[in-house]
Amino acid sequence: MTEEYNLPDTWRQHQVFMRKALDEAKLAYEKDEVPVGAVVVHNGRIIGKGHNMVETLKDPTAHAEMIAISSACSTIDEKFLKDCILYVSLEPCPMCSGAVVWARLKSMYVGALDPKAGGSGSVFNISSNRNLNHQVEIVHSILEEECSELLRRFFNRRR
Asked: Is 65 noted as a catalytic residue in this protein?
């Protein structure tokens, strides 16, 4: 399960991969799940992807990031994702931020921030905490408006 993209390491590349994370978030939206999507990229290839499946699986740990990380580890048959990048449409929660650290991802690109439960810069900063055994480079606000709009639409529909 890999998709390869030959793009230069530029802002455009990050937007392309964030759009792939948004595609995953839209799959969650269609399933009436909180619309969060994630992809893991290694050397320009998507090696893992996921979207929220909490309601579908009746599993509070079935977040997009957890599913994408598990998928990527399975694809490369490794427990660490040292040279990989995570693209996620919403800032990870503390649980997922911890998983990002334990998976030893190189960097993470985040769409929308989560001022209520963010674990990678908003409320907590687990992913870059110097007290942990690994720190992840974080870049916020990639396609922030598009990522935020999908979440707004979902929660407005539920009210």
From this structure: yes
Q: Which of 65, 78, 91, 149 is catalytic?
A: 65
Angle between helices 64-76 and 11-30 (to 10 degrees): 120
pTM strictly above 0.90: yes
Question: Distance between CA atoms of 140 and 159, rounded to whole angstroms?
Answer: 28
d(CA 102, CA 22): 24
List per-residue pLDDT tens for the chain, 159 residues long.
Answer: 555 555 556 878 899 999 999 999 999 999 999 999 999 999 999 999 999 999 999 999 999 999 999 999 999 999 999 999 999 999 999 999 999 999 999 999 999 999 999 999 999 999 999 999 999 999 999 999 999 999 999 999 887
- Inter-CA distances, 35 with 5, 13, 67, Å: 24, 22, 14
